[in-house]
């Protein structure tokens, strides 16, 4: 609970008010059986109507006070729990945003969604119930036992002996239920994961006629969730009848011995009724407690899952300190201030860089060294799995090298403020991720304060402006989720425009022209020549590399060759093989022979 309590402190006044109103409500309710006892013994049995009216009026007034106090207690409890949930969800989301890639990869996306929604909601409900019921129930039980002993010690002792047995039983049930409800939450993660995969890949599922298979897979995950839930609920639902059986036994004992005490004159009818009333209040409280045990057991599992996120390692470096005090609501504006291109810069140096993905010993990159001057265009080529994307991911420090160092403008990226580093980089992945909103908003996502002119220039350079103008609403055209109403090439060009709008010092195109035809790609590369930025172009197309100042050819994580197109045609058999596989047969044979003849 140490992770949760700081979020409650902000609402301590409202929480205290809720508890104060609850205590007033409770005090009044505990006095009511005693008032009923006086009405019976001093009024009804003595045939004194005045006493009945007097104590009856007091009883009615106390009921009104308890009602008003209960309403106010619920209001303050709701304010506290809603504010707590907002702050916790906000902080949790901000922390996830600061995760390093290594930390982020430890959590499934569906699990993080469940923690941000289901687990936070569970704690919100638990806090509300704590202020209204969890605190009240123990006080009702303790108060009822004390008042029963005050009214008549001989009868109240049966209630006092029964309650500890019930509490011990509830404690054991709660501990067992917590483990089972944690399993339920994990099963819910699995169901959410299947749903997310299916909805994201619905087109692929239909194309491969795998709808039946995916329905069966969802059914299997859903069945596992149902079985876990039933297993947990069996325990909690079984506890309620056992509680009722034990408490009804206590009531029977009070009635039995009450009759005996009345006959011998050591107890009155009013005292017996009052003690039975306190027993019934205890029954009601403990019956509600069995349901609260379920809530608290779920909350314990949710606290553990939220603690895992809150205590997970963040991204390293100055970025952590700079953003630690920001909420999700203010995070975007704070980062926008840091998005700044450092014109005229963009030198990148790799010095004996090696890299393995976190938790793996398999080398992805091995002893990579090269230097790129500001403004150079560098193509990165290689077979699938050769380490191209991993190499460029080290530049914005999405990952950190296992050995060696990466320098940008002469600074080791590990010593640079991450916001400043990434603010000078424009990144366009192969699979362009677009957000729900307008085309203008998606392009401006790269620079929120971009003017319409800047957005237009970026779209022109990315060769998407003409397409946008052809749409009925132009830049105000709304995109579906993940840009489903656009083609693959259109999404890629919007992604490139988003990277270009910030006028970066370093531009990374991670195979982001793969869906473009040769003519469009040629115009795009021509437009990029007017930009004074260092460009890393990951590509499999020889036609794209010929306009580059330099080509880095990777093979199995090593830098196999480096140079211009003509250099590699002379020096690298692998590069010639790639060229021959893409060029028309006569041209390929002629240039290959020419290259070999000039070696």
Automatic annotation (TrEMBL):
Keywords: ATP-binding, Cell membrane, Membrane, Nucleotide-binding, Transmembrane, Transmembrane helix, Transport. Residues 16-298 form the ABC transmembrane type-1 domain. It is found in: Cell membrane. GO terms for molecular function: ABC-type oligopeptide transporter activity; ATP binding; ATP hydrolysis activity. SMART domains: AAA (SM00382). It is a multi-pass membrane protein. The keyword Coiled coil does not apply. InterPro entries: AAA+_ATPase, ABC1_TM_dom, ABC1_TM_sf, ABC_transporter-like_ATP-bd, ABC_transporter-like_CS, P-loop_NTPase, Type_1_exporter. The chain crosses the membrane at residues 51-78, 133-151, 240-258, 278-297. Residues 348-581 form the ABC transporter domain. One of its GO terms (cellular component) is plasma membrane. It holds the Pfam family ABC_tran. SUPFAM superfamilies: ABC transporter transmembrane region, P-loop containing nucleoside triphosphate hydrolases. PANTHER family: ATP-BINDING CASSETTE SUB-FAMILY B MEMBER 10, MITOCHONDRIAL, ATP-DEPENDENT PERMEASE MDL1, MITOCHONDRIAL. This is ABC transporter ATP-binding protein. It comes from Paenibacillus spiritus. The lineage of its organism: Bacteria, Bacillati, Bacillota, Bacilli, Bacillales.
């Amino acid at each position: 609970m140490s992770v949760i309590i700081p979020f409650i402190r902000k609402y301590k006044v409202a929480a205290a008010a809720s508890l104060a109103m609850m205590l007033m409500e409770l005090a009044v309710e505990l006095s009511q059986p005693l008032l009923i006892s006086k009405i019976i013994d001093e009024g009804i049995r003595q045939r004194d109507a005045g006493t009945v009216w007097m104590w009856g009026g007091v009883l009615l007034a106390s009921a009104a006070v308890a009602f008003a106090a209960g309403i106010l207690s619920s209001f303050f409890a709701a304010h506290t729990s809603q504010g707590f949930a907002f702050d916790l969800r906000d902080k949790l989301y901000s922390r996830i945003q600061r995760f390093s890639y290594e930390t982020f990869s430890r959590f499934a996306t569906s699990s993080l969604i469940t923690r941000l929604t289901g687990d936070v909601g569970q704690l919100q409900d638990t806090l509300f119930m704590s202020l209204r019921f969890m605190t009240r129930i123990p006080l009702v039980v303790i108060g009822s036992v004390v008042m029963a002993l005050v009214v008549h010690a001989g009868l109240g002792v049966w209630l006092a002996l029964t309650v500890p047995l019930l509490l011990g039983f509830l404690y054991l049930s709660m501990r067992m239920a917590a483990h089972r409800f944690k399993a339920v939450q994990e099963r819910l993660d699995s169901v959410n994961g299947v749903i997310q995969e299916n909805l994201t890949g619905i087109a692929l599922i239909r194309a491969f006629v795998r709808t039946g298979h995916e329905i069966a897979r969802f059914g299997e995950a859903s069945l596992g969730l149902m079985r876990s839930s039933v297993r947990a609920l069996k325990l909690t639902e079984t506890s309620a009848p056992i509680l009722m059986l034990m408490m009804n036994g206590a009531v029977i004992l009070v009635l039995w011995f009450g009759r005996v005490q009345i006959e011998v004159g050591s107890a009155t009818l009013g005292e017996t009724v009052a003690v039975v009333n306190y027993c019934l209040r205890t029954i009601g409280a403990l019956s509600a407690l069995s349901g609260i045990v379920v809530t608290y057991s779920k909350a314990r599992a949710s606290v553990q899952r939220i603690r895992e996120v809150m205590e997970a390692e963040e991204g390293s470096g100055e970025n952590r300190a700079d953003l630690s005090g920001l909420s999700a609501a203010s995070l975007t504006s704070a980062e926008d201030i840091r998005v700044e291109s450092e014109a005229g810069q963009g030198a990148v140096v790799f010095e004996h860089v090696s890299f393995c993905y976190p938790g793996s010993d398999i080398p992805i990159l091995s002893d990579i060294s090269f230097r790129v001057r500001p403004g150079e265009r560098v193509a990165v080529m290689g077979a699938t799995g050769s380490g191209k994307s991993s190499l460029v991911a080290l530049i914005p420090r999405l990952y950190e090298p296992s050995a060696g160092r990466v320098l940008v403008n002469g600074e080791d990226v590990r010593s640079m403020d991450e916001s400043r580093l990434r603010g000078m980089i424009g990144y366009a992945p192969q699979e362009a991720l677009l957000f729900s909103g307008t085309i203008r908003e998606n392009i401006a996502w790269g620079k929120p304060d971009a003017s319409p002119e800047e957005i237009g220039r970026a779209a022109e350079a990315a060769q998407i402006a003409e397409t946008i103008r052809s749409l009925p609403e132009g830049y105000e055209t709304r995109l579906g989720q993940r840009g489903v109403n656009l083609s693959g090439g259109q999404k890629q060009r919007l992604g490139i425009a988003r990277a270009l709008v910030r006028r970066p010092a370093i531009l990374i195109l991670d195979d982001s022209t793969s869906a473009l035809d040769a003519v469009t790609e040629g115009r795009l590369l021509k437009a990029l020549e007017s930009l004074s930025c260092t460009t890393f172009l990951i590509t499999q197309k020889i036609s794209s590399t010929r306009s580059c100042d330099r080509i880095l050819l990777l093979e199995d994580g090593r830098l196999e060759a480096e140079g211009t197109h003509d250099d590699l045609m002379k020096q690298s058999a692998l590069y010639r093989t790639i060229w021959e596989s893409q060029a028309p047969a006569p041209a390929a044979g002629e240039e290959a022979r020419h290259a070999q003849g000039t070696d």
